[in-house]
């Protein structure tokens, strides 16, 4: 590191917590960044762009969740078998999941996968939805 950077680091080490918080506020204002939005330590601070968040909300959803809404008592065993095959859960866990409907079965999957799972559940008598 250069002498200039070493000097800055030494100055930063001498700051109190209150001074450090004030420094962060000043950096955010001067450079128009939000230090709280940085989650990866290898990533630098990014300028705040409110137009990006607006365009995200108008984009089409790409990840879907499948919810088991209703399980008719007469179809419970068939539904339990399908839930086990879809989730890889053991018998006890799958039974608890089926009995506690409405319940999330799978999350963050493509629309095609979600539709396929919903169809499999409905074929054995369950009521399912995609969110």
UniProtKB/TrEMBL annotation:
Superkingdom, natural source: Eukaryota
SUPFAM superfamilies to which the protein is assigned, alphabetical: ClpS-like (SSF54736), Ribosomal protein L7/12, oligomerisation (N-terminal) domain (SSF48300)
Ranges for domain Large ribosomal subunit protein bL12 oligomerization: 4-36
One Gene Ontology cellular component annotation held by this UniProt entry: cytosolic large ribosomal subunit
Keyword entries, A-Z: Plastid, Ribonucleoprotein, Ribosomal protein
Keyword Transferase: no
Domain Large ribosomal subunit protein bL12 C-terminal, chain residue ranges per copy: 64-131
Gene Ontology MF terms in the entry: mRNA binding; structural constituent of ribosome
GO biological process: translation
Gene3D superfamilies tied to this protein: 3.30.1390.10, Single helix bin (1.20.5.710)
One Pfam family, short name: Ribosomal_L12
Signal sequence segment: none
Record-linked InterPro entries: Ribosomal_bL12, Ribosomal_bL12_C, Ribosomal_bL12_C/ClpS-like, Ribosomal_bL12_oligo, Ribosomal_bL12_oligo_N_sf
Family as reported in the entry's similarity comment: Belongs to the bacterial ribosomal protein bL12 family.
Name under which the protein is recorded: 50S ribosomal protein L12, chloroplastic
